[in-house]
Amino acid sequence: MQSTVGTGTRALNFFVDTILVFILAFAAKKVYNFYVFFWGMVPLNFGWFFFGSMVVYYFVLESIWGRTLGKWFSYSKVVNSKGEKPGVLRILLRSISRVILIDMFFIPFLGKTLHDYISGTDVVEV
Fold first, then answer.
1. Contact 59/91 with Cβ under 8 angstroms?
2. Mean pLDDT over residues 64-68, rounded?
3. Any bridge partners for residue 122, and if so which?
């Protein structure tokens, strides 16, 4: 049986992945600003790019490898309740539910984050 990672590992995953998502969102915002300036498109708030990048980043990486770059760094991965790689719909639900800002505050009550609880997944050591 695989052991579930601790809160420190989860914090490390969050820190590494958030930096990468921020870089992706920043680049996307700069590209979009080109179109706003030269083609008169409607300007959008940075939050649209950040949360959009976050959903895409987690969905693509976790659906392909079951791990994000932060999870590669900390030797952890996402599994379903049977210890196997979760299906694409669970990963999509997991990725979308990360947008809920109070996600991590459910750890004391549920023993896991809200996106893990909603999607029926866990983060375990590799």
1. yes
2. 97
3. 79
Under the banding of pLDDT at 50, 70 and 90, the label for residue 1 is low
pLDDT at 2: 87
What's residue 38's pLDDT? 96
Q: Quote the tokens at residue 28.
A: 């996307």
pLDDT at 115 over 70: yes
Is 98:122 a contact under the CB 8 Å cutoff?
no
Helix (H) or strand (E) holding 116: helix 114-119
Strands 121-125 and 76-80: what pairing? antiparallel
Q: Show the tokens assigned to 40.
A: 């008169």
Give the residue among 46, 10, 27, 23 at the shortest CA–CA distance from 123. 10
- Please determine, for residue 76, whether its predicted confidence score (pLDDT) is greater than 80: yes
Q: Alpha helices of 3-106 — where are they, by DSSP H?
A: 7-39, 46-64, 69-73, 88-97
Q: What is the CB neighbour count within 10 angstroms for residue 28?
A: 18
Closest CA to 7 of 125, 112, 77: 112
Token digits for 55? 């959903």
The overall pTM is greater than 0.85: yes
